[in-house]
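call fold(seq) -> tokens
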Amino acid sequence: MGIAGCQSRRFHPPYVAHYGALHELMHGRSRAAVVELDGYAGRPGVYAVGALAELAGEVTVLNGEVWISRPDGAGGFTTTHDATGVGAALLVQKGDGSDQWPIEIALEHDTALVELNQTLGGMARARGLDTSGPFPFLIEAECPRLEIHVVDGTKILPNQTPEQHYAASVQLRYENMPATLIGFHSTQHVGVFTHLGQTLHVHAVVPPANVTGHVEDAVFAAGTVIRLATIQ
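ret:
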């Protein structure tokens, strides 16, 4: 059972590791691999989000299961779970090997991602989590609206804005779609793994569509549970 109410006890999130930096990718200074992904497969408790080397697609790791989606050059995508020989230019990962997410936040009303960007830190603090640094969160739900993209580095020029990156990507929109979202909250990593004005970096795995991607927008229905990891 999760920890659902306000707590006087203090909880600490697991360490969050990150490799590469958004500002390097955005300005075209380096898109080379900074971490290899084949060591992530089959590792229980490992969760991560990122972009492939050369911005050739998206990667999400859910409890040791690797999802890699790439643009196919024709407006669609291909997805694989084979990370052999694949590198990432950006990766953010939950740094311990446990699969414990004991703190639960049930949303009281339909909530858009833009609202969660402003409120998740406060909700986590109210439940006793130390939010002085980055922390991961997990959502498993049917989303009334879910918009994701799969980055396409072949169409991105140096110094383009996040909006231009999005316009050049494979864009996917779903309604009432079951998905698992893994995200990282931080107020200290702008330009590293969050964009200007953002506190969240979130990916979704959408099994019915066999795709993973970076979440641009989403709506979560009232009652949706956000789970927070703690060090046991």
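The mean pLDDT is 92.
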